[in-house]
Write a structure and sequence with these properties.
Elements (H helix, E strand, L loop, with lengths): L2 E4 L4 E4 L7 E6 L10 H19 L3 E6 L6 H10 L3 H18 L15 H13 L3 E4 L2 E4 L40 E5 L15 E3 L1 H13 L3 E7 L3 H16 L4 E7 L2 E3 L2 E2 L10 H6 L4 H10 L6 E3 L1 H23 L8 H19 L4 H20 L5 H18 L6 H21 L3 H13 L2 E6 L2 E6 L1
Parallel strand pairs: 3-4, 3-9, 9-10, 11-13
Antiparallel strand pairs: 1-2, 5-6, 6-7, 7-8, 11-12, 14-15
Helix pairs in contact: 1-8, 1-12, 2-3, 4-5, 4-6, 5-6, 8-9, 10-11, 10-12, 13-14
Length: about 475
């Protein structure tokens, strides 16, 4: 039985979807104002492992992850560059998906953008205004925390004496813990400002929290199974999502809440504002295989903090290479015909260890240990020449089962690099066909810089490394 640490109840609970075999899950996505850093990607990798394991268990899954494509930072930056917010976010949305692909993150089934769901947000705000859980002040609309007595049930923060009424509030999404103030649902926007939407309660733009209430309920219904995100979203973001959604519908919003712990660096949270962040691009430019980062990010269970160092990244890369070598050796080995049932029994046991660990609130470090035990056992059996042909296909099948969740046996770094080089060579051929010799020379120089020598032969272009 799959069990989760539900941060709503603060208990380990059996996972029981609301409707049969169907799981509806919402994970808070990136704010696309910049490149995501590998701390952000630790949370998204946790989401991917969760997604893959739910599918592994045979659930039919609807997984929604939003893109926050409007907030103060985006609006300010767009205004500074004198471009629209769409123009401002477009390259970062592309970059996000590119990075996600490199990390082997499966795409969510639906990836809604906040700016395309303003009508749904307005509708919730209307309901809250009508039922007295929201009020207008100076043209903006605020959630009335005092009208939602369960406020605080997710974060377990006590708010007595802290909640201020209608007249006092802070006009920002970001505020300090235990300084709970009524939060903005809709912020007044001046006619002169480029970014704004018309609403029955005036021209404005949505607060951050209302975006996720609107997009999750639109695609998953008023009550759904799992809501996940990084631990820093628990308060105020998720607390506020609950208040708005349950305040509007009167129904439970999400049954299970899962929060991923931080990626730290030198014992501080990795974050752009502290300037201690690395993007995936930074890491790849240093020559690392993105799968090594993926491995590192989930090697520690999602609910434990992980400290990033280049030392442990190197360790992850070595491990990945060892795993790839192992698989290749097994595939290429000359084996006797037949079957070794003892060995198959042990290998099946490792898969069952993996499942037990993953069922235990996604304990990925114990689950990975099961894979390493499998590799050790099969290596020993190979050395003793007691692996037979039928065992090979069985073991490869079991490795595929592990990898349907881990996603680390993808193409090796060499294969990825080879594919990139071949793409460039193809582009150079195309440039030459179009008599664009400047571009073709440019590509040749670029390849030369990477130590790639091209040879034009009568059978086409050959390449080799210096
Ligand atoms: P943002 O793009 O700022 O909305 O954040 C995207 C996701 O990354 C959220 O779920 C955050 O909780 C998460 N996050 C931000 N910093 C870290 C970190 N250092 N470690 C793990 N997750 C993080
Ligand atoms: Zn959210």
């Amino acid at each position: 039985m799959l069990r989760f640490h539900n941060t709503l109840t603060n208990k380990i609970e059996d996972f029981q979807p609301l409707a049969g075999n169907e799981v509806r899950m919402y994970i808070c996505g990136p704010t696309v104002w910049n490149f995501a850093h590998i701390g952000n990607f630790r949370t998204f990798t946790f989401g991917d492992i969760l997604r893959r394991y739910l599918k592994y268990k045979g659930y039919s899954l609807t997984h929604v992850m939003n893109l926050t494509d409007v907030d103060d930072r985006i609006i300010n930056e767009a205004a500074k560059q004198n471009i629209s917010i769409d123009e401002m976010t477009a390259p970062f949305i592309d970059a996000f998906w590119e990075d996600a692909d490199a990390l082997g993150l499966e795409r969510p089934d639906i990836a809604p953008r906040a700016t395309e769901h303003i009508a749904e947000m307005i509708e919730i705000i209307q309901t809250l205004l009508e039922n007295g859980k929201a009020y207008e002040s100076d043209g903006s609309i605020y959630f009335r925390i005092s009208a939602f007595p369960e406020y605080g049930k997710l974060s377990k923060i006590k708010f007595e004496g802290n909640i201020v009424g209608g007249s006092e509030r802070v006009d920002t999404d970001k505020y300090e813990k235990e300084d709970a103030r009524d939060f903005a649902l809709w912020k007044l926007v001046d006619e002169s400002e480029a970014t704004g939407w018309d609403a029955p309660f005036g021209r404005g733009r949505p607060g951050w929290h209302i975006e996720c209430s609107a997009m999750s309920m639109k695609y998953l219904g008023e009550t759904f199974d799992i809501h996940a995100g990084g631990i820093d979203l628990q308060f105020p973001h998720h607390e506020n999502e609950i208040a708005q959604s349950e305040g509007a519908t009167g129904k439970l919003f999400s049954k299970y809440w899962l929060h991923g712990e931080f990626l730290k660096i030198e014992n501080e949270k990795m974050s752009k504002s502290l300037g201690n962040d690395f993007t995936l691009r930074d890491i790849i430019n240093r020559g690392f295989n993105p799968l090594a980062i993926r491995y590192l990010l989930f090697s520690v269970p999602y609910d434990k903090q992980l400290n990033f160092t280049f030392e442990n990244l190197k360790g992850a890369e070595t491990t990945i290479e060892r795993l790839h070598d192992f698989k290749k050796r097994l595939q290429d080995a000359h084996l006797p015909d037949g079957i070794n049932t003892d060995l198959q029994e042990k290998v099946r046991g490792f898969l069952s260890d993996f499942e037990t660990a993953m069922d235990d609130n996604l304990n990925t470090s114990v689950a990975l240990a099961a894979l390493h035990n499998l590799v050790r056992e099969v290596n020993t059996a190979l050395a003793h020449e007691v692996v037979c042909t039928e065992d090979r296909s069985f073991i490869l099948h079991i490795i595929d089962k592990f990898d349907s969740v881990f996603g680390i046996f993808g193409e090796s770094k060499e294969e990825i690099l080879d594919a990139e080089i071949e793409k460039l060579i193809e582009e150079r051929q195309e440039a030459r066909r179009n008599r664009d010799f400047a571009r073709s020379d440019e590509i040749r120089d670029q390849l030369a810089e990477q130590g790639i020598i091209l040879e034009d032969t009568k059978d086409g272009v050959r390449w080799k490394r210096k």
